[in-house]
Design goal:
alpha/beta; eight-stranded mixed beta sheet; six-stranded mixed beta sheet; 14 strands; 28% helix; 28% strand; hydrolase; NUDIX_hydrolase_CS; NUDIX domain-containing protein; His_PPase_superfam; NUDIX_hydrolase_dom
Length: 316
Amino acid sequence: MPNSDGTGQASAKGTDVVRAAGAVLWREGSAGTEVALVHRPRYDDWSFPKGKLDKGEHVLRAAVREIEEETGLVPRLGRRLPTTTYPVEGRTKQVDYWVARAVTQSAFTPNDEVDRLDWLPPAEAERRLSYRHDVDLLREFLRGAPRTWPLIILRHACAGEKRQWREPDELRPLDARGRAEAGCLSGLLHAFGPARPVSSATARCLETVLPYARRVREPISTDPAFTVGETGADQAVNRLRELVEDGRPTLLCTHGEIVSDLVTGLCKDLGEKVPDEPSLRKAEFWVAHIDPSGPSIAALERHAPLKKTVRESVTT
């Protein structure tokens, strides 16, 4: 399990921390699972694709960008892997990792940073890796399911002050901040690949998920089971259970009044420890990576749209 403190923040603290993100990128080869290793001529080492976060960049966006830049492949993030920390030139480097698979096929182009990309069986990859922490990461990858599907529970973005809205509550729209959050969420959620959008039948929830739905070109399904004022805890959890049984990647946008019940019910159903804080702030989301063989939760992580407010809780 990745190191974390009680709030879900990564354990490396202080301002002198270099943040980075990457993945164990895998594919099905002719003889079984293969993982991608990259060679960096500057250090003459072999490691997993990763790179530093740009200033103000979200860790999910950085993971996707760095993998694409180093390998030429567009990844889809799967289950969360342990965060690695190690000293680099008197500072602490903290790297957040995911399992990932490529969704594009393209020829690798060597460059100054990475001059080789090799796909190797895990045993050979372990011998090739230059660092112990990468060997540990590979072993953690092998302990879980490589292929999972995402169930994302999202609380709608900012919709102003409820007490100042005089019209029917279901018509209350996102405010300017909420619209910006919805736009940001579209790109972050897409890191996990396309999913069917399911939403509460309120304007604020529909507007939150609309940019994502347009990106993945999927219609939004509204459901009273997730609509505040039309549902209760049992109804919402029962409907969520049906979505899990479908086995399809799903993005569910709902309300703060319902989120805790959904996350708690999902974890109890699938035999997972309930997070200490299952609730979400506006525009935050949980990603449950579902192992279809169970089904079970292979990992659970939490994010906010802006990097500075990312909070994560990970289970394996």
